Amino acid sequence: MIKKFLKRVFRKSAKVKKQGNAQVIPFALHGVACEQISYGAKRVTDGLQAAGYQAYVVGGAVRDLLLHKIPKDFDVATNATPEEIKRVFRRSRIIGRRFRLVHVMFGEELVEVATFRCKIEAEDAQTDEHGRLLRDNEFGDQEQDAARRDFTANALFYDPTTQEIFDYHNGYADTCNNVLRMIGDPLVRYREDPVRMLRAVRLSAKLGMDLDAATAAPITQMKSLLDNVPEARMLDEMLKMLLSGHSVECIQQLRQMGLHQGLLPLLDVIMEQPMGEKFVMLALKNTDERLSQDKSVSPAFLFAALLWHEVRCVWQRLVEQGERPVGAMHIAMEEVLAKQKKKLAIPHRHDAIMKEIWLLQQRFEQRSGQRPYRLLEQPRFRAAFDFLLLRCASDEVDNELGLWWDEFQDASDARREEMLRPDGVGVMVKKRRRKPRKKPGVVSEQAE
Ligand code: ATP
Ligand code: MG
Known about the structure:
The chain has 448 residues and is of the alpha+beta class. 50% of the residues lie in helices and 11% in strands. Among the domains are: 15-187, Beta Polymerase, domain 2 (2-Layer Sandwich), CATH 3.30.460.10; 364-431, no CATH class.
């Protein structure tokens, strides 16, 4: 009680100092203690400062701590060059070609350390014909490093030694007021890097911050600039959105801003499937929930969910044309993946898992004989079962099937025997009728 009272009195008397163009916010005001900084980041700032350099925790981590959220990672910014940083830390390596960063390892933790950069002014800047910056890799000082960042809340520097925050763009007040505001002229900043529009959507949805009106206003009219962003970067940002733990809000906000159509192929895939929309939104909700419970989520599972209804459509068409179900599934998967690869640049490494999840879906229908036992032994059973539950929840398949498998997995041997269906019952897909063979006496082929 007394502690609280003293804290309040102390807070009232604490003042923001000016140092050059920075406001220096003392601990007594912001309340972020150095113990909240990760072990590795603290060791990095201590090590660099002891070697005579400036070093601060910067970006998302400071913002998240001010918002009472747990930071994803802790980045450090310094005036030491990559070579100088490397000399200070034994277990470190320089990465990146365009802009070199240093990764410093402390046990499991990896701290990314960047030298202050400056924003290249318009007349010297190398841009493409739409104004997108092609080069932003010049070293600078702390103030310049703040100016080249995107939002005011992302441009705060925290010194774990003095526990002060250095703020050049009023980011502390914005963060306290829950406002996400672009540094500088939003039109210019979106032109320099259109991905900032998506970052605005993602960060405001993820952090529950309000987008400042001037920051939000130009987005709808400037969305076509996203067409010029390299695919790999778009996919990267899309994945960040989908795995942000707030994917449902992100998608809703993208829709509100008209950013979902014609821009992001992956999103088009989602939105263009009226039938699949429920399924996809459930998959995203499920992902958000898993993340909030600190469970792992696999991008492959998510991609499999996003593309499922497209695969299903192609599969259905092929089956109607007389293709056998399993064969049709193989063709459908290849067709959809080939088409999406061109647009989306989904990394190949996810293909195998996506295909396994899709292929196993048909096998859930087979509930007789040895088949359910064999399915349980599949390494990808768990993911495929989670996928089945989503299909049940979206009314694509009967809930009863999900419940059956839920019980069967953990049932006793005796109960499992009871649960098994008589042979041939419950097979989703009708076997294709073969034309009567000319030669009598030939045994008909087994269903796949
Ligand atoms: P998250 O919590 O998702 O990691 P973040 O703000 O830390 O959010 P990062 O992508 O890790 O996002 O970027 C670290 C910092 O780099 C940001 O806080 C911001 O200051 C700066 N930054 C990142 N992307 C841009 C960009 N496109 N333009 C300007 N500054 C950027
Ligand atoms: Mg970050």
